[in-house]
Request: fold
Amino acid sequence: MSSLQSKNIVTCIILSIVTCSFYSLYWLYCIVTDINTISEDPNAMSPVLVIILSIVTCGLYFLYWVYKSGSLLDQKMVETGRTAESRPILYVVLAFFGLSIVTYALMQDTINKLAENDMNKPSF
Reply:
């Protein structure tokens, strides 16, 4: 997970609002890339494909992807010694009710924690 970098969540939210959600597409692209890195399979799912399928299926694919990503993030947090927080269900519920930006923020927070944990890991 060496290429994970923390992002400032408040800055991402402000940029998403100011750019009328165009930045949120880039943010989603970064989140998908980071989750592919976390899964240790950088080619697991193309970020562009996630965005296109989410648009074409009117958000249904996004709900599926959010659930699968939440499960992976939960698993990785447990592996680092933290408790599982039922992320998949929370992410799906938030995304279903149109609060995708909150879902992005929560996912980014988890990614930031994993990146911080990765930086604190001793290297041999």
